[in-house]
């Protein structure tokens, strides 16, 4: 087989590969973590049910937005970089939550 890799999209593909590789072991254990933190089983069930649906809905919506308002930049590096700059501080902000420690 002859595979062709778009080198312009390679950073995005690598990011999502490692992102979902990190989520793979976390999602089955999320109920255990919530139980240890004192979250009720009903809330954990709701989070477990809604989170995959939100991920499934966010991907086509984000794709529609990118296709509807194309950037002048051909490889969307600016859009991907700004997405990471907005997302990462919110994840780092979780460390200041006293309930997690």
- The end-to-end distance, rounded to whole angstroms, is 49 Å
Task: Give a short account of the largest sheet.
Answer: none
Domain module tally: 1
What is the overall shape?
elongated
Strand content: under 5%
Structural class: mainly alpha
Number of helical stretches of at least 4 residues: 3
Order of helices and strands: HHH
Question: Spans with pLDDT under 50 lasting ≥5 residues?
Answer: none
Radius of gyration: 17 Å
Mean pLDDT: 79
| Secondary structure: helix percent | over 70%
According to DSSP, the number of beta strands is 0
SSE map:
Elements lengths: L9 H28 L3 H28 L8 H16 L9
Give an account of the 3D structure.
By secondary structure, the protein is an all-alpha fold. The protein has one domain. The chain is 71% helix and 0% strand. It has three helices and no strands. The chain has helices spanning 10-37, 41-68, 77-92. Helix 1 runs antiparallel to helix 2 (41-68). The longest helix has 28 residues, at 10-37.
Condensed summary:
The chain is mainly α and 101 residues long.
Features:
mainly alpha, membrane, 3 helices, 0% strand, elongated, MFS_assoc_dom, MFS_MFSD6, single chain, 101 residues
């Amino acid at each position: 087989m002859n595979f062709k890799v778009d080198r312009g999209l390679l950073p995005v593909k690598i990011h999502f590969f490692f992102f979902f590789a990190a989520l793979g072991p976390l999602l089955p254990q999320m109920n255990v973590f919530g139980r240890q933190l004192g979250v009720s089983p009903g809330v954990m069930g709701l989070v477990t049910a809604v989170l995959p649906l939100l991920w499934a809905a966010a991907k086509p919506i984000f794709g529609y937005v990118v296709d509807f308002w194309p950037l002048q930049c051909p490889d969307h590096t600016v859009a991907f970089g700004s997405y990471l700059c907005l997302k990462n501080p919110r994840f780092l902000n979780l460390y200041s939550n006293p309930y997690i420690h």
